[in-house]
Amino acid sequence: MSDDAVVEWLLDSDPAVRWQVERDLAGAPPSVWQQTRARVATEGVGAAMLAHQDPDGQWAGGAYFPADFDFDGPEADEPGRPYTATTWSLNALRDWGLDAAVLGDTAARLATNSRWEYEDLPCWSGEVDCCINAFTLANGAWLGADVGQLAEWFLDHQLDDGGWNCEWIEGSTVSSFHSTLNVIEGLLQHEQLTSGNHPRAAELRAARLRGTEYLLERRLLFRKHDGELVGPWASRFAYPLRWIYSALRVTDHLRAAALQDGTAPDPRAAEAVEVVRAARNDDGTWTQGTRPPGRQWFEVDVPEGEPSKWLTLYGTRVLRWWDAT
Q1: First-residue to last-residue Cα distance in the chain
Q2: pLDDT tens-digit profile of 34-57?
Q3: Residues 3, 310, 321, 94: is their CA dihedral positive or negative?
């Protein structure tokens, strides 16, 4: 397919995909893509996810795990994790572009009813896991919850090498690609959604940039000490993206951050961009890879091996951003 044909193919999509195609690839005016974005609440995957919300504001009765998850049962021994609880459902709705106003008083209901599985801590205070806290920071800022103190938690838990690691609680002092990307995404979302309105906004931005530098020092793909690929997952792409680091996900984050910061692409991202480019099919699409296992509410993309509109959206806008410089 030509570039125009790829865009036309992408436009024939769920509103959650289509509005982003209109904004980022088709050059549609805000009046057009905003109208499409509003349909996320009433059509397709957005409406389907909203239908699963519990009266107490949660999904599946739990904060990070569904209420019926047995930590000592067979599901706990299986690969992956369930993706039906509140954190994952809010992540999806936020990524799909749902207007937070549609969720009404969800932030207040969660403050009253939702507790973390870790030590029964209240929802918007976060817990000890960097990735969970990053998701919570972004979701809270989106819903209008008071997550200012949680934002400062990341300043206190940034490691000496500049990144973060969810295993810090076990004594880890070396940052994780996965954790660091999740955190800088959360910090960027918080900055965008609050317009940088935080008493320590400059420190939070500096922490985000330092975390980004941790990844760029490693050219987004490689271990610093020996130059080897950080892991096979770095070049594997699948939607939903979940928590997993990949060249596609990190370069799309850099694109969003560059738009926020008014900066040009960093040349140290070149190899990761080429990994994204190499995964593009001859027809201009990207193929769905192996998704992380675990129960979910419903399918939101194609099966493995088929052309993915979500991955094609991300890949196309990354290459357009990079090639425009």
Answers
A1: 24
A2: 999 999 999 999 999 999 999 999
A3: positive
